[in-house]
Design goal:
Strand order of the largest sheet of chain A: 1-2
CATH class of the largest domain in chain A: Mainly Alpha
Number of domains of chain B: 2
Oligomer: heterotrimer
Distance between the termini of chain A: 37 Å
Distance between the termini of chain B: 61 Å
Chains: A mainly alpha (about 280), B alpha+beta (about 350), C mainly alpha (about 325)
Number of strands of chain B: 19
CATH superfamily of the largest domain in chain B: P-loop containing nucleotide triphosphate hydrolases
Order of helices and strands of chain B: EEEHEEEHHHEHEHEEHHEEEEEEEEE
Largest interface: A-C, 105 and 107 residues
Largest sheet of chain B: 6 strands, mixed
CATH architecture of the largest domain in chain A: Orthogonal Bundle
CATH topology of the largest domain in chain A: MetI-like fold
Number of strands of chain A: 2
Strand content of chain A: under 5%
Strand order of the largest sheet of chain B: 6-7-8-3-9-10
Radius of gyration of chain B: 24 Å
């Protein structure tokens, strides 16, 4: 089947449009629903995609004033940043050690690291929640900060290890001959050159943290300490009553800035992933 | 005074003996070349001298001190890698200043030295650029400037010309040797290119299988190679080896000439030569053909300068003559050089190939 | 021309001997240790605990680890809910990942070309990834609502469903006003699979885009010169080169989906009753945390292990093959 240039471009566009509708149309609805009047929303005959009655900000007020949404966002940010920091602090040296210093062991251990990642939170959450209780961290975001790196560190180490391997080692050796210790060479040469990879794992770790649901659900029950993913689902659903518009508002408020940030970093993320997973 | 000395240097990677007993002495101001095919151990030897690999056995002395336990930074050596290893995230200025920063030199002194080094290699105008904006030749000079800025006791160069295109290479060779003479810095140079080695080295160490086969001036290596490996590694085309009953005979292509032309020979040996192919290269002609040996007809190459205009055709046999003083003799089993083995004339004739 | 003389700054004497900063072995261990200890303590130990729980009778009411028994496993295996959950897990994973891999490839390929509005398109495609999955799933909860579903609204207006009110026309697809996406067992499974694909599409597409960028442009040029059609190009050139990263993406997706509970839990709680869309992870949560039966929850989860080990072995084999390269 041969398509001309224009034929190919239109086909491409059609494919893109299909996918965009698939991924984004729920968000379009979420955006409208955020501002929809309840009497408009709860009429099945009404067009769900336009405002049949005037838009309202009532739902937003409800979200911010009558729930702990502000807290949820803050907690999510705090947990996110803390987990990213812990992940970077643990994964960067470990990745270097595996990539450069461990020799034949390095390959095996690197795969071992990746395997650890394959043990999922849903397998561990039961004993994990016992651990949290024993440590007295129930209902504290500290529980998440301490536990989340268990699923970010293995994958990020493996990815970064691949990335570092793709950087030729002669630049570090040059630094050692030029007058630095191995540690000095790591800090002055490898670290700056590995920045794109580190950026990739930062984005990745933050993603995983923000999406996490089961640990958050199991560890934290007090409302003011919840994160977005658990807080919104539990607080805005009282028994059978769903505060749909407010829930949708909660989702959109987070989705838009995060999607913009991801989009900004996407090319670098892809580059980091390529070097880490494909060529590593 | 010897600047570098290695004694019984060995490096084993498991079962692989990359370097198997190397003894070298490099004199002050000398340009010593480590020459050999890939895998011969020359780069590993250099890396041990630099401190990037730990010897399995043996000692290394630099500037009179035993440096076995010294990390690279303490050995006062400078190294230029094949890839030049410029720091991509730093400007040329910072690249060159990098070793000085390690010494915690103050800013004014640093600037003076960097500018001196840059001026030495004519790259002063590039100081604000980043490596990715430079050409291959420019990058090489930045690497060299970075190497001398600390005034090291020893310069280590790992095939620094192999990344340049062929045209630049000859010029770069000349420049590099001139810099070295000017600075008077002791240099160890690793290469697999025997033209580079012969052209630049004050002395050359030919290596193979982790050992030094021969260490000497280019003339010594060329005229009196200690074994067949050295004999056939140098020269382009390399020395011809012909097996006789009692020994292996070696001679350079340019030493054997047609009898008509090669007249005033003190101790001539006549060798019938069946020419199979003639290559006309302008400045010389290469003749490919067969001579007699204990194994039957053996292929050799001879080189005839353009000054010799005698017509030579493929498919003919010619009477070639070589001075016995130009012959090398090697033992059949050890392949080492031996004293001349007397024989009256070259008796075995090659069957006619036409 | 000799160098300018400057005062010798740092006497080299002090830095002469090797110290810990040079020692590769020390550094290697020290740099690996924090991550290593962390992982062993916080993954290894809980893992062992999970195994222990599964072989005991621990509950939230009786948390003492006093007996070791196989009864828990027997009870779990005999439970029809568990059996259904096991089957569903496979259905859920295999179908969703198979479809998703195909879609992600198509989308990734479409995104390699440059076209106006690409930034906006990427933004829209990234959205499912940009909000916590729990919330996105709640959005779909409305999409699939048995009364208010906007999809049903569209279907109604297209004649696929019956219009609301008396005397509405008969629906072509179904003679009712709503599909009951989450109410009918078959449809519920479809819905859950759909949402799982939706949430993972951005990430998988990005991973495959990474693989595509690693294919050298020389190869693309060669293909153009050879004049090969797009299907053949994809099958015989792109696909083999993409294989390693495709496998990474696929295996990652399989593990993730097989062990995930969020979509099922939020969308259907495992229903329609009793367990039409229940998967191992959601069932383990309901049994283990909500009902408090820790040992049964742990035992349920243990059945994930064979699949995970299988995946691990496949990964090892890929890793070995890429080394040979």
């Amino acid at each position: 089947m041969r398509l001309g240039r224009i034929g190919k471009a239109t086909f491409n566009y059609a494919v893109i449009v299909f996918f965009v509708i698939f991924t984004a149309f729920p968000f379009y609805w979420m955006l409208i629903a955020t501002f929809k009047n309840s009497s408009d929303l709860y009429r099945p005959a009404n067009n769900p995609f336009i405002f049949n009655q005037p838009a309202t900000t009532e739902n937003l007020r409800l979200l911010f004033n009558q729930t702990n949404y502000g807290n949820f966002v803050l907690n999510t940010l705090v947990v996110g940043v803390a987990v990213v920091i812990i992940t970077v602090v643990l994964a960067v040296p470990a990745a270097y050690s595996l990539a450069r210093l461990a020799g034949r062991w390095g390959e095996q251990l690197g795969i071992g690291m990746f395997m650890v990642y394959l043990i999922p939170p849903t397998l561990l959450f039961i004993p994990m929640s016992r651990v949290v209780t024993i440590l007295g961290l129930r209902d504290s975001i500290l529980s998440q900060i301490i536990i989340y790196p268990t699923f970010t560190v293995p994958f990020c180490t493996w990815l970064l290890m691949g990335f570092m391997k793709s950087i030729p080692s002669d630049v570090e050796e040059q630094a050692m001959v030029d007058g630095y210790s191995r540690l000095g060479a790591i800090w002055r040469v490898m670290f700056p050159l590995a920045m794109p990879g580190i950026l990739t794992i930062i984005v990745f770790a933050f993603t995983l943290t923000m999406h996490e649901f089961i640990y958050a659900l199991a560890f934290v029950t007090a409302s003011e300490h919840k994160v977005i993913s658990t807080g919104v689902t539990t607080e805005l659903i009282r028994g059978d009553v769903f505060f749909w518009q407010s829930i949708m508002a909660a989702g959109i408020i987070v989705a838009v800035p995060v999607a913009i940030v991801y989009n900004l970093f996407l090319d670098r993320f892809i580059a980091g992933f390529t070097l880490g997973a494909v060529k590593g | 005074m010897a600047v570098v000395e290695t004694r019984g240097l060995k490096k084993h990677f498991g079962d692989v003996k990359a370097v198997d007993g190397v003894d070298l002495v490099i004199q002050e101001g000398e340009f010593l070349v480590l020459l050999g095919p890939s895998g011969c151990g020359k780069t590993t030897t250099m890396r041990m001298i630099a401190g990037l690999e730990k010897p399995t056995h043996g000692d290394i002395y630099i500037g009179g001190r035993k440096v076995n336990d010294f990390p690279p930074r303490a050995r006062r050596v400078a190294m230029v890698f094949q890839s030049y290893a410029l720091y991509p995230h730093m400007t040329v200025y910072n690249n060159i200043a990098f070793p000085l920063k390690a010494e915690k030199m103050n800013k004014q002194d640093m600037q003076q030295k960097v500018e001196w080094a840059a001026g030495m290699f004519n790259i002063s105008h590039l100081l604000n650029r980043k490596p990715r904006q430079l050409s291959g030749g420019e990058r090489q000079r930045v690497a060299l400037a970075r190497a001398i800025v600390r005034e090291p006791d020893l310069f280590l160069l790992d095939e620094p010309l192999s990344n340049l295109d062929a045209k630049l290479r000859a010029m770069a060779r000349d420049e590099l040797k001139q810099y070295q003479r000017q600075l008077g810095v002791t240099t160890l140079y690793v290469t697999h290119d025997q033209v580079e080695a012969m052209g630049m080295g004050d002395r050359v160490a030919v290596m193979s299988g982790g050992r030094v086969r021969q260490l000497g001036t280019p003339q010594e290596l060329y005229r009196t190679p200690t074994d067949t490996f050295v004999a056939t590694f140098l020269g382009s085309p390399p020395m011809n080896l012909v097996e006789k009953d009692t020994c292996i005979l070696g001679f350079h292509p340019e030493h054997i000439l047609p009898a008509e032309v090669h007249r005033d020979v003190r101790d001539p040996l006549h060798i019938p030569f069946d020419v199979t192919r003639v290559e006309y290269l302008g400045s010389e002609r290469f003749l490919y053909g067969l001579v007699g040996s204990a194994q039957g007809p053996t292929k050799i190459v001879t080189a005839i300068p353009s000054l010799v205009t005698m017509p030579i055709e493929a498919g003919q046999t010619y009477d070639f003559v070589i001075d016995r003083g130009d012959l090398s003799f090697f033992d059949k089993s050890t392949l080492l050089r031996i004293a001349p083995v007397p024989f009256a004339h070259d008796s075995a004739r090659v069957g006619s190939t036409s | 021309m000799s160098a300018p003389t400057v005062a010798q700054s740092q006497p080299v004497e002090e830095t002469r001997q090797e110290n810990w900063k040079d020692n590769e072995r020390v550094l290697g261990v020290a740099m690996l240790l924090p991550a290593g200890i962390y992982v062993i303590l916080l993954v290894g130990l809980p893992f062992l605990m999970a195994v222990l729980f599964a072989f005991s009778d621990v509950t939230i009411g009786d948390p003492a680890l006093d007996t070791l028994t196989l009864d828990t496993f027997r009870r779990v295996l005999a439970d029809p809910n568990f059996q259904r959950a096991l089957v569903n897990s496979f259905i859920f994973t295999i179908i969703s990942q198979a479809i998703m891999v195909v879609l992600a490839n198509i989308l990734a390929a479409a995104l390699t070309r440059n076209f106006p509005g690409k930034w906006l398109v990427r933004f829209l495609i990234l959205l499912p990834w940009a909000t916590p999955i729990a919330i996105g799933t709640i959005g779909w909860l409305w999409m699939f609502d048995s009364v208010y579903s906007p999809i049903d609204w569209i279907f109604r207006n297209l004649g696929l469903l019956k219009q609301i009110g008396v005397g509405g026309q008969v629906g072509i697809l179904k003679n009712a006003t709503n599909m009951y996406w989450l109410g009918e067992p078959g449809l519920a499974m479809f819905s859950v699979i759909l949402v799982q694909i939706w949430r993972m599409l951005p990430m998988s597409t990005v991973i495959i885009m990474a693989g595509l960028t690693s294919i050298s442009p020389d190869i693309r040029d060669a293909v153009q010169v050879d004049g090969v059609g797009w299907w053949r190009e994809w099958r015989e050139v792109t696909l083999p080169l993409l294989r390693p990263i495709l496998l990474v993406a696929l295996l990652f997706g399989i593990i993730f989906t097989f062990t995930d509970m969020t979509v099922v839990y939020v969308l259907t709680r495992g229903g329609p009753p009793p367990n039409a869309t229940q998967v191992l992870a959601s069932w383990a949560y309901i049994k283990g945390i909500q009902s408090g039966n820790l040992s049964e929850g742990a035992a349920t989860v243990m059945f994930m292990l064979p699949v995970l080990l299988g995946v691990a072995l496949v990964m090892l084999r890929i890793a070995r093959r890429t080394e040979v390269r």
